[in-house]
Amino acid sequence: MSVKEEQTQEVKLESPENSDGYDSDLEDATERDARLRKLLNLDLEEADKKVWLVRLPKFLADKWKDPKNLNGQELGKLRITQGPAGVNVKERPSPQVQIILNDAPENKDLPLRYDVNIHKRVVDNEYIFSERNLKEYKTEANEIASMPEQPELKPVETEIDPEPPRGFKRYRDESKSYVSYVKTIPKNTAIVGTVIHECQAIPVRNDRNYSKVVESRKNLRYVKPKSKVTLLDNLPGVIQSNITPNLMRNKNSTFLRSEKKDRRAEGRAIRMPQNQLLDVLFGLFDQYEYWTLKGLREKTSQPEAYLKEVLESVAELNKKGPYALRYSLKPEYKKLRDAERRARLLASGQAAPDKNDYDDDEEENVEMVEIA
Question: What's the CATH number where 320 sits?
């Protein structure tokens, strides 16, 4: 029994509590994790701070974005003019707000006074946030470790293909695009304040420097070069060059081709005014007594539906007899036509023909129409 007890005591290992540095490393990691969790949480200490959200002119915003103006110095003053004290709050006019810049050399080209128009007095659920990198991760990112000593290596005679980079993505056209390695640094986010008003700053027109800003904008319009469009088909040797690829063979180069005229529209009948079409129809019926729709369409070159619509107002379709499916003038228009014929003959000094002569002419006209 004593021998076994001595062997067990010899192989007995030390407990982790007695090992040097174990407790300290565990405590450091735990404290660091707790501190990081606290820093990564949203900081709400300034949530009750009231903030005005003001939209500035571009030239003033660019001026204040300069790092020289971000050192905590005074840029100007905010003047708020309230109404008379004895008046009720509801009847009191809205306060007048102005931003007055310091009369300093850096503001010599800027208007010094700006009217602040409050266009949204009540703002709901609008906050201003700030974000900064954690100090610990910032120092780790900037640390430079010393390189360990490397043994001398003999040059390799055989060529070895270089190993491709790890990070890349492949597109549909089988081309590769390498993605740069980016290290994400945890950030501490905090609320700067709660927005209570939305405003817009407008420079006062009677300010002595306002005319300078307007004049500089006018000059900038003439100084800035305008973009020009150069058509590639006007440059010889660009489209069909042996050095550059042939652009006209690409499916995306159709925008370089001139648009072809739509030849389907050629030869189509174009509608003439109704009064002109009626004059043409009366002239045709003055030549021949009966006409088919096809013959009138060939003579007038009008759409069939439009021609038929106008034709039915002055002519009628014979459905029976030897002149079936042919149009002739309505009786009232025939009388007018005959009266015009007699007037023309009397004016020319010829004797007016009788009704039998008109019948003979009509028969001749009918034969000519059938031949046509």
Answer: 1.10.10.10
